[in-house]
Structure formats: structure tokens, C-alpha cells
Amino acid sequence: xxxxxxxxxxxxxxxxxxxxxxxxxxxxxxxxxTVGYMDFGISVxxxxxxxxxxxxxxxxxxxxxxxxxxxxxVLVKKLIxxxxxxxxxxxxxxxxxxxxxxxxxxxxxxxxxxx
Length: 115
Prior knowledge:
The chain is mostly helical. The protein has helices at 2-38, 41-71, 76-93, 100-110. The protein has one domain. Helix content is 84%, strand content 0%. It starts with a helix and ends in a 5-residue tail after the last helix. The relative contact order is 0.11.
């Protein structure tokens, strides 16, 4: 019974992964439509908001998480290579649930156990 549920879970996560990849295309086509319909004025405000978000995230990563990772002797380059795809999909779709199985598989390759 447990194997059947795990198999169903894997199938559902693969299906969600496919849907999320398609939403990347949809979001990519929605941006030009918004610019064409509302002109570039709306884009300036959205760009400022995104720039502030990414600057804050970069500051947090470099000033808090990187020193902790170096202190704990984590292989930062290897970790970045392993999690880059799940992080990209999660940030592009704002859906962590959609990539959690993929991220779990990738971190298991890095050496993190499921438990």
C-alpha cells in the first residue's frame, strides 16, 4: 500500500512539474501583452519592486547564509549546481509545492537524507 501511494505521489509531482514548465511559457507571453496594453509606465514600477526584492535577497544570502555555509563547511558550488533548476522553477511560478519532489531528489544526490 505504501509503495502504491509513493508511486502515485511521484506521478503527481511529475505531472505538476510538466504543468509548471508550461506556465513558464504562459508567464513569458503575458509580460509582452501587459507592456503592449498598459504601456511601459507600469513596467517601471514593477521593475523597481523586483529590483528591491532581488537586492534584499542577495544581501541576505551573502551576509547571512553564505557565512553560515562556510562555517559549516558546505560545498557551496556543488549545492548551487544541484538546486539551481528547482529554485528557478519555484521562483518563476511562485509554487514551492510544484518542485518539492524535484528538490528532494536533487538534495538526496547531494547527501541529505529523506528523514
